[in-house]
């Protein structure tokens, strides 16, 4: 079996078609083809002129027999792909060596031409006919010339088949040399080492083929009934060929299946890898190339004139058509009206123009095809596309059973791979997008921003926070809050356009990246976005008023020191959030980031991270501010207040670090610390015969903790303190932030026997209904009203109303912020029960408070033989 590469083979046709994209190579190839034809014709004429005239009585049947032999050799070939180049392993040497031994040159040449040209005409491969005719002439003229020369050179007595073997091997080498030259012109390969290896392989296989032919000839002419033995050998060779070809075909089919599945998977990863890709069905250029390679590979394996891939990567996207091989005619029918593409089920359908219905025959004619294999690509309950293969090239009888089986398996693998591709794309899309609004989420924004920050210099990151969402959710339900978020996202998208990366980070917080944007333009856009979001939102039959705050930061020209673009995006978002919080604290709607803002929040971050260590090392201490009864001035107890002396920042205001501690979840540790210190102090006073209570402030997080009452009960048991000597002070806003969770906790605390007091009363909801639903024992008048009583009649009226309201509900009324004697006297006149403030004492450390007790109070025996402390008048 010799190895030949002929441009009329399907793979060579593909090479020639692609060579049209390079006109210079195509021109050189055409010149080379004509040269081969001329040289082949001259060589044939020259050999015919030098051959002696022979007469053979067997020519009437020898000529047709050689034609049949060459036809069988052309038909029984093994196609092998070597680096995407097709090689045909054929048996051409067998009829050639028999022709050298039995027939004159003209007969062998005519038989070869009739078989070769006839095969191409039947296969409708005429584009390289000029080159192929020249090659055929040289493949016969060369062996006869070598045969004649060897006959003259070899010594007398040498067998004739020796010269025939040399001539036949010369034909194989001529064919390989011409094919290598043609490939080098068309593609610039193979190189010399590969060409030499190919020539060596050709000689080995050609020698085997030639030996079979010579042995068959000698057996036929020397032994009685030798032709019958030759028939058996030929039958064995055919069986061997079919078995080998079958194994080779199965191997190539498996390789094709693997390559196609991997190509689709790689394509899906590339298409879905970007967060901005919304799986809209539009193939990227790189993705199109990958699918084109898949179509080419299917065409090569099926040895088809054309393969058409029709792909629908998204249910709403149009069908994308890719063609491998000969282009489709311009008048090919549309997919929706094509009878060939009406594909129920998932089986391969085979159409032939010879026996097809009229509409199918017309559809094949419009494709310029005589036969077609068509199979649908079906995924999870949906049609993903179809594969068409037109006109088998390397076999006369068209597509066979193995082709149908391969296409069926290919379609199954391709559909599964496409389904997985769609699933992977959807998973990647969901990983980078917010499910509620369809906008990018935080990881998606990070990826999109990194990509643009690398390509643009002047950029700006905006952080937008939509207000009143919690109020809408509490009043109308979370679904209405979600509708407002969706509406806000739509307004932002419409205002910014589709090209601007826009993300919903969490809740009602959004982020956007503006590229090629200076400070002035960025502020203008930020103010525009605020106006868009601040417009009323129609909710059912209501119109909800909302507001928004925008913080923005200009992207530095220089990248981060570590070159980590992801860290840059996170830092920019953090800075924009700092600007947003600064705007909210200042009552602004839009504010840009300046570095000084970062120092404030950096200090806050340091305080939060160091707070736990401060508790353990004694930096945080509890101070006590006394509370006295009015008008008798008896010391009833203290309010426990936390103080922190920082080794770097010095004495810190509680208003600076307590909100930060509450926001980070460390408030439980703070509350437990203050409560344990206060209870230990109360226990010590009890041991000295003093019955003083301690008040501890509660956070909204404490009220949301269902286990908090259990920890309070355990602390009371551990310190052996009566529950009535522990007071918890809570703010109105803290309770009403989440009343459904706060009220059960308050009821359990009240059931323990501890005293509950409403702090800063008058600044929040301050309604009779509010007080009636809370299990409280005291109300504390906010110090802003107490301080203003002396100059503002309105503040005095508020204080008087709170006292009367508290007493009407049976509650103790405490006034905080008492700093003057006049204010104390007014409170006594109003009937206020307890006073607290600088007039009595500032908050004092433990030691100084003990000294204050000794210096400012006297002991007296109470009505129940209890020791009480009274302020010295």
From TrEMBL:
Would the keyword Heme turn up in this protein's UniProt record? Answer: no
Molecular function, one GO term = cyclic-guanylate-specific phosphodiesterase activity
Give start and end of each GGDEF domain: 457-596
Q: Which CDD domains match?
A: EAL, GGDEF
Q: Which residues form the EAL domain?
A: 604-857
Report keywords, A-Z. Answer: Membrane, Transmembrane, Transmembrane helix
Work out whether the entry's keyword set contains DNA-binding.
no
Domain of life of the native organism: Bacteria
The family database entries (Pfam families) matched by this protein are listed as: EAL (PF00563), GAF_3 (PF13492), GGDEF (PF00990)
Which residue ranges does UniProt annotate as crossing the membrane?
27-47, 59-76, 96-117, 129-149, 161-186, 198-219, 225-244
Q: Which SUPFAM superfamilies match?
A: EAL domain-like, GAF domain-like, Nucleotide cyclase
For this protein, the record's InterPro entries field holds: Cyclic-di-GMP_PDE-like (IPR050706), EAL_dom (IPR001633), EAL_sf (IPR035919), GAF (IPR003018), GAF-like_dom_sf (IPR029016), GGDEF_dom (IPR000160), Nucleotide_cyclase (IPR029787), Rev_trsase/Diguanyl_cyclase (IPR043128)
- Name of protein: Diguanylate cyclase/phosphodiesterase
């Amino acid at each position: 079996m010799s190895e030949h590469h002929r441009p009329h083979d399907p793979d060579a046709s593909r090479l020639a078609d692609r060579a049209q994209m390079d006109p210079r190579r195509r021109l050189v190839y055409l010149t080379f083809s004509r040269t081969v034809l001329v040289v082949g014709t001259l060589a044939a004429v020259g050999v015919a002129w030098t051959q002696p005239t022979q007469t053979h009585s067997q020519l009437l049947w020898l000529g047709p027999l050689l034609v049949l032999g060459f036809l069988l050799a052309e038909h029984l070939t093994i196609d092998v792909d070597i680096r995407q180049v097709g090689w045909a392993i054929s048996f051409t040497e067998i009829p050639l060596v028999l022709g050298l031994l039995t027939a004159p040159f003209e007969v062998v040449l005519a038989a070869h031409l009739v078989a070769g040209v006839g095969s191409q005409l039947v296969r409708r491969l005429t584009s390289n006919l000029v080159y192929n005719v020249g090659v055929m002439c040289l493949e016969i003229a060369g062996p006869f010339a070598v045969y004649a020369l060897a006959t003259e050179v070899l010594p007398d007595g040498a067998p004739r088949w020796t010269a025939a073997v040399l001539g036949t091997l010369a034909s194989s080498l001529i064919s390989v040399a011409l094919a290598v030259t043609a490939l080098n012109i068309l593609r610039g390969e193979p190189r010399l080492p590969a060409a030499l290896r190919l020539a060596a392989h050709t000689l080995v296989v050609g020698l085997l083929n030639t030996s079979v032919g010579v042995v068959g000839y000698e057996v036929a002419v020397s032994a009685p009934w030798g032709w019958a033995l030759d028939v058996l050998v030929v039958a064995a060779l055919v069986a061997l060929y079919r078995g080998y070809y079958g194994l080779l075909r199965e191997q190539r089919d498996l390789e094709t299946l693997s390559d196609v599945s991997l190509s689709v998977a790689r394509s899906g990863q590339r298409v879905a890898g970007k967060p901005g890709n919304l799986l809209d069905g539009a193939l990227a250029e790189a993705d199109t190339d990958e699918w084109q390679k898949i179509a080419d590979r299917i065409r090569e394996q099926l040895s088809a004139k054309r393969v058409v891939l029709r792909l629908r990567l998204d249910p709403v996207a149009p069908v994308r058509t890719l063609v491998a091989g000969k282009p489709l005619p311009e008048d090919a029918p549309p997919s929706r009206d094509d009878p060939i593409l009406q594909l129920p089920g998932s089986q391969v359908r085979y159409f032939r123009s010879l026996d097809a219905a009229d509409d199918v025959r017309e559809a094949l004619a419009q494709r310029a095809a005589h036969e077609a294999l068509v199979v649908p690509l079906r995924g999870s309950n949906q049609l993903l596309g179809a594969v068409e293969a037109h006109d088998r090239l390397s076999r006369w009888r068209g597509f066979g059973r193995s082709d149908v089986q391969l296409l069926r398996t290919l379609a199954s693998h391709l559909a599964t791979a496409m389904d997985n591709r769609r699933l992977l794309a959807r998973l990647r899309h969901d990983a980078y997008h917010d499910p509620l609004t369809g906008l990018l989420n935080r990881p998606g924004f990070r990826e999109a921003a990194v990509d643009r920050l690398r390509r643009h210099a002047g950029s700006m990151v905006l952080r937008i926070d939509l207000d009143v969402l919690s109020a809408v959710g509490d009043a109308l339900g979370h679904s209405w809050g979600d509708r407002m978020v969706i509406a806000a996202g739509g307004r932002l998208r419409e205002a910014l356009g589709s090209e601007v990366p826009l993300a919903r980070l969490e809740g009602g917080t959004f982020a956007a990246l503006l590229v090629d944007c200076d400070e002035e333009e960025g502020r203008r856009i930020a103010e525009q976005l605020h106006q868009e979001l601040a417009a009323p939102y129609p909710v059912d039959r209501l119109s909800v008023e909302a507001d928004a705050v925008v913080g923005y930061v200009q992207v530095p020209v220089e990248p981060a020191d570590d070159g980590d673009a992801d860290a840059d995006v996170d830092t920019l978002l953090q800075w924009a959030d700092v600007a947003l919080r600064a705007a909210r604290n200042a009552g602004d709607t839009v504010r840009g980031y300046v570095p000084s803002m970062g120092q404030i929040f950096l200090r806050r971050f340091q305080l939060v991270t160091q707070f736990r260590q401060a508790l353990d090392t004694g930096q945080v201490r509890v101070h006590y501010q006394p509370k006295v009864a009015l008008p008798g001035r008896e010391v009833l107890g203290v309010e426990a207040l936390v103080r922190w002396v920082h080794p770097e920042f010095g004495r810190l205001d509680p208003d600076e670090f307590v909100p930060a501690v509450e926001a980070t979840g460390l408030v439980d540790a703070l509350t437990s610390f203050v409560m344990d210190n206060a209870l230990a102090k109360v226990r010590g006073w009890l041991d000295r015969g003093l019955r003083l209570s301690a008040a501890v402030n509660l956070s909204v997080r404490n009220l949301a903790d269902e286990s908090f009452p259990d920890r309070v009960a355990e602390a009371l048991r551990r310190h052996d303190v009566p529950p009535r000597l522990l007071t918890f002070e809570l703010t109105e806003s803290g309770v009403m932030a989440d009343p459904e969770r706060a009220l059960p906790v308050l009821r359990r605390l009240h059931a323990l026997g501890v005293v509950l007091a409403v702090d800063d009363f008058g600044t929040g909801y301050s309604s009779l209904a509010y007080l009636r639903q809370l299990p409280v024992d005291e109300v504390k008048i906010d110090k802003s009203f107490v301080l203003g009583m002396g100059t503002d009649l309105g503040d005095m009226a508020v204080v008087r109303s709170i006292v009367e309201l508290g007493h009407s509900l049976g509650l103790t009324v405490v006034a905080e912020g008492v700093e003057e004697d006049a204010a104390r006297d007014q409170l006594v006149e109003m009937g206020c029960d307890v006073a607290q403030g600088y007039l009595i004492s500032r908050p004092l450390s433990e030691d100084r408070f003990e000294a204050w007790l000794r210096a400012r109070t006297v002991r007296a025996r109470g009505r129940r033989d209890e020791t009480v402390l009274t302020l010295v008048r």
